[in-house]
Automatic annotation (TrEMBL):
This is DUF4239 domain-containing protein. The keyword Transmembrane helix applies. InterPro entries: DUF4239 (IPR025333). Pfam families: Bestrophin-like. The chain crosses the membrane at residues 12-31, 51-68, 177-202, 214-232. It comes from the Bacteria. The keyword Kinase does not apply. Keywords: Membrane, Transmembrane, Transmembrane helix.
Length: 261
């Protein structure tokens, strides 16, 4: 429902989160101060300030931990794409070493498959889907490899490596498709939301001066920026900073320049 936010530039999303949090802490006290038993005074402001500092620190730790988790998920997916590109490149290299025209005939479908990943499938990953065109390209590669008939000696050994490499390509493809749903658990966002609500409530009960309002606004803007950063990193295949197919694009260039034998 909020996926449209990923269409925004990252800097705009971060600024929006910061402005929202700063705006909330500016407006909220005008509401809470109307409640008699929540009206701040000089004698309870000191206590609230000490409590607010503790809550701010705890909330910052929660956000930091969540950011580490989101960053780890992002790096895992990025590494997975690099591994897939490496496996495709290795398979193409083995087909060249096989040294027969039947293996050379498998190489164009393999290149077409890699190109289909970038052109057809990658735009669909943000929506959690794969591409039927890419699956069909993969099937053509599979049929070509299974049609190879190695002779005794060197080709038998290389063919065994080709089959092993093809299995690795298939596994990394499945892993990439399964990774489209990688994101932080809902409990992370629930904990962050609860911590923010309590922090905002406590902060709104500090006796206000213009100076305190500015400082609290800056404080919440910083937390809002970090929350926005977590949101940006949470979905590896979405947004302007999403994992890109650069490694596969480089592999395609290498394969196209590789001379068959």
């Amino acid at each position: 429902m909020i996926d449209w936010l990923y269409s925004l530039p990252d800097w705009l999303l971060l600024m929006a989160c910061a402005a929202f949090m700063a705006g909330v802490i500016t407006v909220l006290p005008r509401l809470t101060h109307r409640i008699p038993w929540l009206s701040p005074s000089a004698e309870n402001t000191d206590f609230v300030l000490r409590l607010q500092t503790t809550l701010f620190t705890a909330t910052s730790f929660v956000i930091a931990f969540t950011l580490v988790e989101a960053e780890a998920n992002f790096r895992k997916v990025d590494t997975l794409v690099s591994t897939e590109a490496s496996n495709i490149n290795r398979l193409d290299r083995l087909l060249v070493r096989y040294g027969h025209e039947t293996a050379d005939q498998v190489r164009p479908p393999l290149i077409a498959y890699a190109q289909s990943i970038v052109g057809d499938e990658w735009p669909l990953l943000a929506g959690g889907d794969g591409s039927d065109k890419t699956q069909e390209a993969f099937s053509r590669v599979s049929r070509g490899i299974l049609a190879l008939e190695p002779s005794q000696g060197r080709q038998v050994t290389i063919y065994a490596e080709i089959l092993r490499s093809f299995d690795m390509v298939a596994e990394t493809r499945d892993s990439r498709l399964n990774a489209v749903g990688v994101s932080l658990s809902a409990i992370f966002w629930e904990v962050i939301g609860f911590a923010f609500l309590i922090l905002l409530f406590v902060s709104s009960n500090i006796e206000r001066t213009r100076f305190r309002s500015i400082i609290l606004g800056c404080q919440m803007a910083v937390l809002g920026t970090f929350i926005g950063f977590v949101f940006v990193m949470d979905q590896p295949f979405k947004g302007r900073s999403a994992v890109d197919p650069g490694a596969i694009v480089q592999t395609i260039a290498i394969m196209e320049n590789r001379k068959g034998g």
